[in-house]
Design brief:
single chain, mainly beta, 7-stranded parallel beta sheet, 6-stranded parallel beta sheet, 1 helix, about 5% helix, disordered N terminus, LRR_dom_sf
Length: about 200
């Protein structure tokens, strides 16, 4: 077992700890602000007990072998600024109201998993969101029109899913967008989208 722990006040960074996430209980760590366990070959399901980390600002479990559903408890940690679950084997749906209690979330990364169903309809409730990555999953259905309300969004990666339907015109309202990845097969639709976005600049 190799561990490196750095503490500054209540900031606790745990890095490179070879444990099974499904056996971890976090109920006694409510002061934790930063939890980084990426690239650790972690296996198992993400524990619901993560929801007890009521002051957590950064949750990074990316590049592991975690599977199962994304625990709904993490969407109730209102202090979260970063959620990074990229490159795992997570499955299931994301709840439509996942952003209802995440007023400070700036970065949401859940790409390269096996998530299914439609995209959450109210991602715009994450009003501070700067970057969104849900690429390389199995999402279906249309892009929610409400995504056009995400005024601070700079990076949006939704490609390599199974999304269908036309791109809603509201997407042209993304005034801060800098990087955009979507599945577009209609060149006319692509030109119309790019023209609408460029007019905002």
């Amino acid at each position: 077992m190799m561990a490196r722990v750095a503490m500054t006040g209540l900031l606790l960074l745990i890095y490179c700890i070879n444990i099974s996430a499904s056996r971890t209980n976090f109920t006694d760590e409510s002061a934790l602000l930063y939890l980084s366990l990426q690239m650790n070959n972690l296996t198992g399901e993400i524990p619901q007990s993560l929801g007890f980390l009521s002051r957590l600002e950064v949750l990074d479990l990316s590049e592991n072998d975690l599977y199962g559903y994304v625990p709904s408890s993490i969407f109730n940690i209102s202090s979260l600024k970063i959620i990074d679950l990229n490159l795992n084997d997570l499955s299931g749906n994301l709840p439509n109201d996942m952003c209802s209690n995440l007023p400070m979330l700036q970065y949401l990364f859940m790409g390269n998993n096996g998530l299914v169903g439609e995209l959450p309809s109210r991602l715009d409730k994450c009003t501070q969101l700067v970057a969104l990555s849900l690429s390389y999953n199995r999402f279906t259905g249309n892009l929610p029109r409400e995504m056009g309300n995400m005024s601070k969004l700079q990076d949006m990666f939704l490609g390599w899913n199974k999304l269908t339907g036309s791109i809603p015109s509201e997407i042209q309202n993304l005034r801060a967008i800098q990087h955009l990845s979507l599945e577009i097969t209609n060149w006319s639709e692509l030109f119309h989208l790019l023209w609408g976005i460029c007019r905002l600049w």
